[in-house]
Amino acid sequence: MTLPEDYFEDVYRAREDPWDFATSLYEAAKYARTLAALPRGHYVRALEIGCSIGVLSGLLAERVDTLWAVDLNDQALTRARVRNADRANIIFERRRLPDDLPNGLFDLIVLSEVLYYLSPEDLETALDAILGRLSADGTLLLVHWTPHVHDYPQTGDAVHAATIARLGHGLRHLHAERYGDDQQGYRLDVFAQDT
């Protein structure tokens, strides 16, 4: 993660749900679109990178046998575990992008609101690691806020463009959506391994 860990410590210390993931109608609609965009109804082994307080994790858990939900912040992970205490199929772990992901292959990898915290160089390293863990029949889903945020190294559009630049090199684009405007909006892209 290019932003320092103290950045996230301060954010989670200041508020229980810093981005209103559990209460925002905008977030609820985005989660519904995220789930609807998945090309399969069920996955065996999934990875959610940057799970935060676990709101999306709980929704993804309904569609997978086992979900590895990872984040670099202990406060966020504690809240995610409490929120999802009834979900035995979620494994919460402290991990850090770009070089500390769980081993093995996953047939679903979800990155929601996380990649713009990486510098362009760290993003390329992270994409290498992510794609190296995507199974031959796997789905990669990215969804990110698109307006500029002054203290983020990149925008959502920039990280999606970096992923799209890998098309034809083991990756194909299945689906794209864009919602909102330059004040409040996001984009969603779904990819698959090109086997």
Structure description:
31% of the residues lie in helices and 30% in strands. By secondary structure, it is α/β, with parallel strands linked by helices. The protein has a 7-stranded mixed beta sheet, sandwiched between helices. The longest helix has 13 residues, at 25-37. The chain starts with a helix and ends with a strand. The mean pLDDT is 90.
Short description:
With 195 residues, the chain is of the alpha/beta class.
Provide key terms for this protein.
195 residues; alpha/beta; globular; transferase; SAM-dependent methyltransferase; SAM-dependent_MTases_sf; SAM-MeTfrase_NodS-like; methyltransferase activity
Q: Characterize the quaternary organization of these chains.
A: single chain
- Overall structural class, as computed from helix and strand content, comes to alpha/beta
What is the helix fraction of residues, given as a range?
25-40%
CA-based shape: globular
Question: Secondary-structure element sequence?
Answer: HHEHEHEEHEHEE
How far is the first residue's CA from the last residue's CA? 30 Å
How much beta, percentage-wise? 25-35%
